[in-house]
Amino acid sequence: MTKTIARRVAPLTGSYRPEGDKSLSHRALLFAALAEGESVIRRFLVGGVTRAMLRCLRQLGVHWELDEAAHVLRVRGVGPWGFESPPEPLDCGNSATTLRLLAGAVAAAGVPCVLTGSEGLCRRPMGRIVEPLRLMGADVTDTDGHAPLTFRPAPLHALAYALPVASAQVKSCLLLAALAADGPCAITEPGPSRDHTERMLAAMGAPIRALDPPAHGAVALPLQTPLRPLDIELAGDISSAAFLLVAATILPGSDFTLTQVSVNPTRTGILDALRAMGASITLANEATLAGEPVADLRVRAASLTGTEIHGDLVVRMIDEFPAFMIAAACAQGETLVRDAAELRAKESDRIAIMAAALRALGVDIEEYSDGFRIRGTGRIPGGATLDAHGDHRVAMSLALAALVAEHPVAIQGFDILSESFPDFPRVLAL
């Protein structure tokens, strides 16, 4: 669908409790399937990306029941080696998380299957999981470095592997495969990536732990006892919250609170980046929810100035850059981002697509292979018809731009945002 959004005059006020974190929802669902017994997952994110995982697990013989209204999911686990051979290829839709996590799980289970997905997903590079899985002994065939991936049963072996780029998805894939290896597997990273897999699997009884600082990564031993089922409530998604943090910051007079949001330190780069620009974001009611740190985030409208982002901070906010680019466009002065080449291999080339959209709106932006420079003037002067390019985060970011643009903005493919944040239009009254 195409959505036209005009400049918003009213501030963003009140409060909102985001749905469960997308990364946590994926992991809780898959790990519950690998456990023995029934798991209950509350505040489960119901969106396109999680529906892909639900469909695939059903094909693998996992029974589940979803109460969509209450966001409660019940999963009857089959154990780590209990997957059935699916009758047809597993369609992961547009969800790279589904494909990459399942790759580790099916390699461990020794179940023959094919993992595929949408045209966009099949353009995304898969060599970063295929190469180390093969080093572990997995029998996996790719398609010129991409999906479809074909798995055949093969014994897995101990592995010490250094990821060339910090990636929670790749690390998680290998840790899942490690549960069936014949010895310990140590996965190191050049910097920190989100650690939800380590936290959740360890809480379920898996012999897994984070590496001791200053090293980054984790080590896992072969699984000797069944994973315990889950009974958890998930923390709110900070990646979804980021869009509302930016909206409240750039809409004059706003005072908005997001409750029980994940503030896992591997995910809070967006908070650090926005604060460095002058955003007014405060934390309250800090607590722990199912092993994850959470807090209420109060954000008030503020004037922003440019900043520089590089190094480890990039990994800690990698999914939030489209929203951040709107904040940078609304700031005064230059914002420079480097070390972010990973943005070109997401659901879309987010650097190129966002840069083209911002230029169409009259924003001064320069692209680099690993980042961009935005020369902000405190305003978005234009209006245009823009394309979300099948990317949910791009769609929501363009909507943020439309809220403050001086002329209406039409967004083609706007409804793709339901992949991760179906509530977004309602919260912002779009």
Please describe the structure with a list of short key phrases separated by commas or semicolons.
single chain; alpha/beta; 13 helices
Give your account of this protein's structure:
The chain starts with a strand and ends with a helix. It is of the alpha/beta class and 430 residues long. The model has no long low-confidence stretch (mean pLDDT 96). It is built from 13 helices and 23 strands. A hairpin with a 2-residue loop joins strand 20 (364-368) and strand 21.
Summarize, please.
With 430 residues, the chain is α/β, with parallel strands linked by helices.
Radius of gyration: 21 Å
Distance between the termini: 14 Å
Structural class: alpha/beta
Widest beta sheet: strand line-up: 2-15-17-16
Determine the strand fraction and express it as a percent band: 25-35%
Low-pLDDT ranges? none
- Specify the biggest β-sheet: 4 strands, mixed
Global mean pLDDT: 96
* Count of helical regions: 13
Task: Tell me the number of strands.
Answer: 23
Q: What spatial form do the alpha-carbon principal axes imply?
A: globular
Q: What is the share of helical residues?
A: 25-40%
Strand and helix layout:
Elements: E1 2-5, E2 13-16, H1 22-34, E3 36-42, H2 48-59, E4 63-67, E5 72-78, E6 90-91, H3 96-109, E7 113-116, H4 127-135, E8 139-143, E9 146-152, E10 159-162, H5 168-178, E11 185-189, H6 196-203, E12 208-210, E13 216-220, E14 231-233, H7 238-250, E15 255-262, H8 269-276, E16 280-289, E17 292-300, E18 308-309, H9 312-315, H10 321-329, E19 332-337, H11 350-360, E20 364-368, E21 371-377, E22 384-387, H12 392-404, E23 409-412, H13 424-427
Parallel strand pairs: 2-15, 3-14, 6-7, 10-11, 18-19, 22-23
Antiparallel strand pairs: 1-23, 3-5, 4-5, 7-9, 8-9, 11-13, 12-13, 15-17, 16-17, 19-21, 20-21
Helix pairs in contact: 1-2, 1-3, 1-6, 2-3, 3-5, 4-5, 7-10, 7-12, 10-11, 10-12
